[in-house]
Amino acid sequence: MADLKLRIGALYPDQMNIYADRGNIAVLQRRCEWRSVDVSVTAIGLGEPIDPEQFDLIYLGGGQDDDQRRCAADLIERKRDGLVAAAARGAILLGVCGGYQLLGRWYELGEERIEGVSLLDVETIRGEGSRLIGNVAIETRLPGAPEGAVLAGF
Question: Is-contact 87 71, C-beta < 8 A?
Fold first, then answer.
């Protein structure tokens, strides 16, 4: 059996860590270790380019509003080309919370529109009512998953 390796690039771990995103990376790393996957995690901060050949998975979490604005500008100016090239070569882009929004075309923040990198054809518009946060558990019918498998998250 070939040695399994996973190279993870964690975008903005200091700025985009509002909902335990370091914990998401730690869990991913531990689950890989349980499966004998050699995993490495490299932090990619503000001002640092992305080498599209260096990562198999690029993770982007969520942050406070001001941090997301700063990261949005950096993503567009310094990282968009690297993200596009990484995705084109088959790297996985995993956006959680504001990270998902930043991978899209734009999202609304009050009356303000924050531009994303347009890797996803999505626009996030705040709906009426209160914001929903918390744990989720759903039954899924994904290919290869047992019928009625429960997918849990937050």
Answer: no
pTM of the model as a whole: 0.82
Query: In whole angstroms, what is the distance from residue 117 CA to residue 103 CA?
Result: 5
Beta strand extents in 27-67 (DSSP E only): 37-44, 57-60
In one-letter notation, the amino acid at residue 68 is Q
pLDDT in tens, 9-58: 999 988 887 666 678 898 899 999 999 999 999 999 999 999 999 999 99
The answer regarding whether domain 4-127 maps to CATH 3.40.50.880 reads yes
Alpha carbons 144 and 115: distance in angstroms, whole number: 36
- The amino acid present at 149, given as its one-letter code, is A
Measured distance CA(98)–CA(60) in Å, rounded? 8
pLDDT at 1 over 50: no
Which one, of 140, 46, 41, lies nearest residue 94 by Cα?
A: 41
Q: Determine contact, residues 108/126, Cβ cutoff 8 Å.
A: yes
**Residue whose tokens read 């941090």:** 67
Give the tokens for residue 41: 């995690």
**How do the domains of the chain map onto residue ranges?**
4-127
89-107 pLDDT per residue, tens? 999 999 988 899 999 999 9
